[in-house]
Write a structure and sequence with these properties.
Blueprint: H1 2-27, H2 33-55, H3 59-81, H4 94-115
Helix pairs in contact: 1-2, 1-3, 1-4, 2-3, 3-4
Length: 122
Amino acid sequence: MIRWLLRAVVAAGLLGSAWVHYVVWRDWAAETDVVGLLFLVNVVAGVVIAVAVLLWHHWLPVLAAIGFGLATLAAYVLSLTTGFFGVTEQFTTQAETWGLITEAACVVFGVPLLFNREGTDR
C-alpha cells in the first residue's frame, strides 16, 4: 500500500513538473534557443517517466524519476545563480514555486520508493 502511494506521489510530481514546463514553454521559453527545447524535453520526459513509474514496477523508472527531479532542480538553481544557457531567474512566479515543489517530490518520495523493497511490488 505504501509503495503504491509513493508511486502515485512520484508520478504526480513528474506530471506536475511536466505541466509547469509546458506552461512556461508557452509563456516565454519557446522563444529561447536551448532552453525552449529543454523545456519540451522535460514535458515529454515527465509524462513518459510518470507512466513508467506507474506501470513498470521496477527500480529503473524510479531512478529515472529521481534523476529527473535532481537534474531539473540543478538546472533551476543554475538559472538562479550563474544563469543557464542565457536564462536568469529570480524566483518570483507561481510556476517557479510549483516547479520546485513537484521536482522535490520526485526526489523526496522517489528515494524511499527506490529503497523500499518489501512485498511483491518490485
